[in-house]
Amino acid sequence: MNKLTSPVLMAGIPLQNADLLYAAPFSGSDPVVFLRDGRRKHLVVGGMEVARARRLFGKRLQVWAPAELPVNRRTPRSLTEWCLGLLRRLKIRSVLVPDDFPAGMLQRLAGAGVRIQVLAQAVFPEREIKSAAELARIRECQRVAVAAMRAAIGMIRGASVDRRGELRDRQGVLTAERVKRAIHAVMLRHDCMGYGTIVACGRAAADPHATGQGPLRAGQGIVLDIFPRHLENGYWGDLSRTVVKGAPPPELRRMYQAVRRAQALALAQIRAGAVARRIYELVLNYFTQAGFATNMAAGKMEGFIHSVGHGLGLEVHEGPRIGLQDNRLRAGQVLTVEPGLYYRKIGGVRVEDVVVVTAAGCRILHRCPHVFQV
């Protein structure tokens, strides 16, 4: 649990700040000010948003309009003035702020006499343990990711191969851009948005975060990585598959089989109390023994070059990680499990599912078929 006892001050747009959204789940494009003082919680919103915020939060926190605070009337929309007005109203002279608090605002608050301490720890470490409501939101995003993945794989499976090896359908050459548009269309139908969606073919997939572009080709691996974010509540899903249209080269098939085996090994180890580093080392050692070395080639890392997985919730990448850290997993954490292999002369292979950690193991939040050759 969070042990912070001094007042904590935060400011920004909730949908752009996971901690702020966790503290005050209020959708919209305008900034807010949040302050927690012991059990008391306060939220300052723009005048047009006051009624909606009060309906939403009821007695859970005190909602303030700027006009109700002693703010400088010459700059009534200044977020710094909102902070100062709230602190003056509550007679608070010293606050804690997160390490991503806006630097300009921090300087102006300090110049106005507010004593400020920047936190060296997470504001809400309890975010790592998901409630039943949070699990339901992430599971819904995973359901959307699965629907989008089925649509993407369906387009690739239904395509034909022309004489140049490019995939085609009735609309012409099947490109990464067209598949991404289809993925995004599915997301929008379910009130989600896609950010950085990956449809990377062939050697482009050797870069884990290359989003992919241009024609898709037969006989080459196509990494599909889909992470929808819900437009209202801000929670994320995350799902990856690797497919190939037609016959894959033997080395690509071996990579895929190794990645699937590595994911199974990791899933079998995940449970409350498991040490993240040991799961990572198990996967790394398996890849090495299977003949897939991790090293530097032509100035770039190749092989197993990222963690086994990461936390998922109000951020697409949040704590904990299944990497070199010695942290122990806890029941209620939501994690991606996504081992991958990347070689610049072949391409990349990644498979990814999302699980919730339990006392006895882990549970996949929404299942998606594993297919390779389509």
* CATH fold-level label of the largest domain: Creatine Amidinohydrolase
Q: Can you count the helices?
A: 8
- Tell me, briefly, the overall form: elongated
Strand fraction equals 15-25%
CATH class of the largest domain: Alpha Beta
Radius of gyration of CA atoms, rounded to a whole number: 24 Å
- How would you write the strand order of the largest sheet? 1-2-3-4
How are the SSEs placed, and which strands pair?
Elements: E1 8-12, H1 18-23, E2 32-37, E3 40-44, H2 50-57, E4 62-64, H3 79-90, E5 94-97, H4 103-111, E6 115-118, H5 132-158, E7 160-161, E8 167-169, E9 172-173, H6 176-189, E10 192-194, E11 198-201, E12 221-226, E13 228-230, E14 239-244, H7 250-269, H8 276-289, E15 295-297, E16 300-302, E17 309-311, E18 318-322, E19 334-337, E20 340-343, E21 347-350, E22 353-357, E23 362-364
Parallel strand pairs: 3-4, 5-6
Antiparallel strand pairs: 1-2, 2-3, 7-8, 8-9, 10-13, 11-12, 12-14, 15-16, 17-18, 19-22, 20-21, 22-23
Helix pairs in contact: 5-6, 7-8
